[in-house]
Design a protein that fits this description.
The structure is a homodimer.
Chain A lengths: L20 H8 L3 E5 L2 E4 L1 H20 L3 E2 L5 E3 H7 L1 H4 L5 E4 L5 E4 L4 H8 L11 E10 L14 E11 L2 H21 L4 E6 L9 E7 L5 E6 L5 E3 L20 E4 L6 H8 L7 E8 L4 E7 L6 H8 L4 E3 L2 H6 L15 E5 L8 E7 L2 E6 L9 E3 L17 E16 L1 H5 L4 E3 L5 E3 L1 E8 H11 L17 E5 L4 H16 L4 E4 L5 H11 L3 E5 L1 H4 L3 E6 L5 E5 L4
Helix pairs in contact in A: 1-11, 2-6, 2-11
């Protein structure tokens, strides 16, 4: 490709909305352009990167025995009604009617569509297992779309779906897909980590995110220092340290407490650490029920864990009015003498002689002990793991990380096949068994954005060789006949060798050409100049490294 | 790929809705499946065919210097409002709102989206020409979707858009794209013809359809016997034969005519050929105006030509009530003493002494002559060309054909750049000139369907080698250890040679395997059987030809 003919050349500056370095470079280099917020054009340069990324994913998926196919983008609404995901999906679904008033969902994920296809075939045990996948445009009606390709409203996704006769067969495949994903990201120049995560609106029991550590990411996760454990904050478990097991149990004492409503206020008032207090909050479920939630004062609630522990789809904090209806008062809520259902964190058993509110303004109860003085209806893991906590079992210290979720793999089990009629196969006894399923996603735009965030320096991008838009950037310096002719010859001979060449043949200064080359970040550069070409030499440079090698033309 | 592991195996029968042979075979073979009417899954086999088709198109587009990119599927509604195509597009646009109430169009074509991208760059003369293209899903809310992939509501399309500084530069490129398209279809095993056509809702002045002749097609076109002219019926011109130039002009005579209302009734009543009569109809335009339309009695009106001649978007025939308001009566409408605007076909000057109605029930006028006794406000080409008519100029006889429109190329001129603000480049004088544009489409699903319609016989498909899902169909007959081992070895060695192999390793009868191979239609078959393998031989067969060659295993 001659740069003079390329559509989508580099530009000098971008709008102030652009907050991340990688996104800025993608726009400035002419890789992508925004249509509306969260919707992007892939320009010819960006499209070439996308093709390379997709090809690598395709090769590895095929190597794992998966089969590529393609489902329609518009999903009949009745399929989503079968699983009732129209109600549970957290991103808002875009919906559209055709002129005959048939309603469709603009697919955000395609589980229903794929199961609806597979159940059309009367499969028997010997037709399983298989995994089918596609690259297709997905839609999520994000309220805010920032960060460019990292969080788009419309994006290309590789989504795969596997079907198995049994849990055991699935587990073997799930492990294989984890390895396939790690290899994919390695080939793309990304160090991804398999991080245990929640299934959210996808259904199923467990899942892993593939996360690349980077500050622009929105995934907060915890990794044990010994490297044996990595989990998303939504699911990360941790050891509740026993704080004061030596302390003698003493009697409950109701005291007047002229303190503010927060845990910090209690710390100041009592001169005792936060863990000494019980943090009590009242939540309201989607059915309107009020729930008392208690945990140790130094911990925070994980609303994701809480939702799962309670099995409800949404939760909100109670208003002051609702707190008062529950017979208590904000800042002094207490698990003692409660009138509503209570759920408590495992940490409630790790402290002797807690301080807690006493359901009245500026009244506290001291020396309160779980089991002896109060209990909850459900004792569960509902606290957020934090940097410095310890791993359950190994006691290795957990460290907090931030990163970009570039892919994910989900156990779905029979979540879909139980809900969708006819989603089963004939087993060896002639009966019908629901498929045991998994699904596997990679966000293509987000992966490209992550590569751009990771692989850049102060002047521009530095694409890994495997994904760069071209393998060689050929730069012609000067325009005298000998240089033009040599550069043209080099261009043709590199192409003949199967190289993907971007040939900067423009009539602009060397400075402009080098600064564009720095910005575009193609791995190999070949420079044809008047000085060297007279001696039958060209220069080769890796990115914009300081060392240039002079090469005889024949040596290339 | 082992057939035993393939998702989407062949089935024996299809629903009665399936009307075309190719569509039936695509479903039976496991290439495609319907989601809802007009929306299809590409199964692994079909997806492989689609990949081959896209790759060939991509190679030829790139060879013509075009650059691949990708635009979002959701188009901001305001772009379509800029060109007012929301009002003129004949397929109903699907529209969708996001949660912030922004309205989008589900793209049916992408001219506005592409111009909206290109105008973001401040292009100057030296940045042109260029052509960008994409493969992307398109939506058309067809009222009826029949014929499978031939007329889908959601389909993959290759759409390209070229930008030029001048008409001359565009015309050179347009001719090149015509040739590129013919080469693409030739490589896909289709004999396509460049057929002059109308631009319809696309804007611009002229266009060509790429049509493959076949009875399942919906395009009716005319080709001259000398091969120099091919045009879609909507635009095909033809010579108006002079019928009776020797006849002396005689005086108008008003006569009582006890005849029915049709031209045929007039033929019977007068014993004169249909061309002797004037066919007169009243149409109502989109603004409610009544228009008298006249042509020679042996011809039919082309509503497409009529719309173009009148420059309106829609037209309908007048009701009896409206005809009577126009001061005349159905069956006896006359261009004599008319009170409304009239448009006439060129054929009105080709007959002396016409017979026409006289605006009263059972009253006719005889010996009516254009120019002497009546005239029209516009004399234009508004008649439908028919088999047997003659080409204008060459007088070669026109023959009617039916075919599938697999692609099209459009001159757009400045239709979009005039309507969309800022769609221009800096010319050499420093002023701004609107881009001169063209666009170029290929329907991928329709192309696949057409290949399937053309390349089949009574037992199954016969894919051209370039597009078939696999290059080799390896069939293992029997399951004794020697055969299994040889077949397995063959499979590995063919793959190592870079062949795409479908290996029928199932434990089913030879009859089932051959009938599936016949159905799937892969070009090369290799058969491994006990009888021959003992002698170190396998059989090679081209499709299911009667001749099988026996080959030493090493000879492959």
């Amino acid at each position: 490709m001659r740069y003079s003919q390329l559509f989508g050349k580099s530009i000098r500056s971008v709008s102030h909305d652009v907050r991340s370095r990688g996104h800025e470079l993608l726009i400035r280099g002419g890789f992508i352009r925004e249509s509306g917020a969260g919707r992007f054009y892939m320009l010819p340069l960006g499209y070439r990167v996308q093709e390379n990324v997709c090809r690598i994913i395709q090769e590895e998926m095929n190597r794992a025995g998966c089969q590529q196919m393609l489902a329609p983008i518009l999903h009949p609404h009745e399929l989503w009604a079968e699983t009732r995901r129209t109600e549970s999906v957290s991103f808002e679904l875009m919906q559209v009617k055709d002129r005959s008033d048939r309603q469709f969902v603009l697919g955000g994920t395609a589980e229903e569509m794929i199961v609806a296809l597979v159940r059309q075939f009367s499969l028997s045990e010997r037709d399983l297992p298989f995994c089918i996948y596609q690259f297709s445009t997905k839609f999520r009606d994000e309220l805010r779309a920032r960060g460019g390709l990292l969080r788009a409203r419309e994006f290309l996704m590789k989504d795969g779906y596997s079907f198995h006769t049994s849990r055991e067969d699935f587990e073997r495949f799930y492990e294989q897909m984890g390895k396939t994903y790690l290899r994919i990201f390695e080939r793309l120049g990304l160090e991804a980590h398999l991080v245990l995560s929640g299934n959210g609106y996808m259904g199923g029991d467990y899942a892993h995110e593939l996360i690349v550590e980077h500050e622009v990411g929105e995934s907060r996760y915890l990794v044990s220092e010994d490297g044996t454990y990595a989990a998303h904050e939504d699911v990360a478990t941790f050891e509740r340290e026993i704080m004061n097991s030596e302390e003698a149990l003493t009697d409950v004492k109701i005291v007047h407490a002229e303190r503010g409503a927060s845990i910090e206020d209690g710390v100041k008032h009592y001169g005792a650490p936060a863990w000494r207090q019980i943090k009590s909050l009242i939540y309201v479920t989607d059915t309107g029920e009020k729930i008392l939630v208690c945990l140790r004062g130094d911990l925070d609630i994980s609303e994701d864990k809480l939702l799962r522990a309670m099995g409800c789809a949404t939760l909100r904090l109670a208003t002051e009015q609702e707190i008062s209806e529950a017979g208590t008062v904000a800042g002094f809520i207490s698990p003692l003498k409660r009138s509503i259902k209570a759920i408590g964190d495992l940490s409630l058993t790790s402290v002797r002689n807690f301080i807690t509110g006493a359901n009245e303004w500026q009244r506290d109860a001291r020396n309160v002990n779980y089991g002896r003085d109060f209990s909850v209806d459900v004792l569960a893991d509902i606290a957020l793991a934090q940097d410095g906590h310890r791993c359950v079992g190994s006691r290795s210290i957990l460290r907090e990380r931030r990163g970009v979720e570039v892919g994910n793999i989900f156990q779905l089990g029979t979540w879909y096949s139980d809900r969708m009629q006819g989603a089963n196969f004939t087993n060896s006894q002639g009966g019908r068994t629901p498929y045991y399923m998994g699904c596997y996603g990679i966000g293509i735009g987000r992966t490209i954005a992550t590569i751009a965030e990771i692989h850049n320096d102060q002047v521009g991008l530095k694409w890994p060789h495997s994904v760069g838009p071209f393998s060689t950037h050929l730069i012609q310096l000067g325009s005298d006949a000998a240089v033009c002719s040599l550069a043209g010859e080099m261009y043709q001979s590199l192409i003949a060798k199967g190289e993907q060449v971007l040939f900067d043949d423009r009539n602009v200064s060397a400075g402009v050409k080098f600064s564009d080359a720095d910005l575009l970040g193609i791995a190999d550069r070949i420079i044809v100049s008047a000085r060297l070409s007279a001696a039958g030499l060209v220069e080769h440079q890796h990115y914009r490294s300081d060392t240039k090698r002079e090469l005889r033309i024949g040596e290339l």
